[in-house]
Amino acid sequence: MDLWVLAGIPITSFIVALSGALMPGPLLTVTVGEAARRGFWAGPLLMVGHALLEGALVILLVVGVAAWLNRPVILGSVAVLGAAMLGWMGLALVKASRHSRLEFDAQAQSGLHPVATGILMSLANPYWLIWWLTIGLGYVIFAQKYGLLGVVLFYAGHILADFAWYSLVSGAVAQGRRFLSDQVYRGFLACCGFFLFAFGGYFAVQGVRFFLS
User: Fold this and answer.
1) CA-CA to 85 of 20 to 30 Å: which in 77, 101, 111, 142?
2) What angle do CA 29, 174, 51 make, to 5 degrees?
3) Domain range holding 62?
């Protein structure tokens, strides 16, 4: 059973992270502009900075979880808040799938190195911290049950989703947007939205179990 759970951690982490990455924000806007100026590698370089920031945050969360978060009322609260956040994001994604477009504006550029820009643009998005304090924290708590390996698998799946999506966007810009249409983008949004509803339900059930324990 543990092997199945361990195998599922990076897969579900990838899909949840992809759902967040798909939503437009400061980092996506700058990725488009930097890719128009620098080419394909702008996206992966921006994600290096993003990954460094999130890696540091995961370490802080793990240290905090180990120190004082391992209590049923806290675990339950985090799980329920995470479930609510997932449900809200899922609804937003499904709604956005009806009309959203990828805006390829080459004017959104930064004078900094892409790695530094990746860090700063992540911090500039208020939803980034909210996501980590609800969904991310809940997932770290869950993954930590399986030791360091569980946390590493969670982080690997999470950051792989960011690299995959932003590399795809960067490549689309560099190639003149020949393989990433608005229809494909909307399909991604809808699929991820429905997945978030299901995963939010799982988080809610786990939260209730923590409260009852």
Assistant:
1) 101
2) 50
3) 2-212
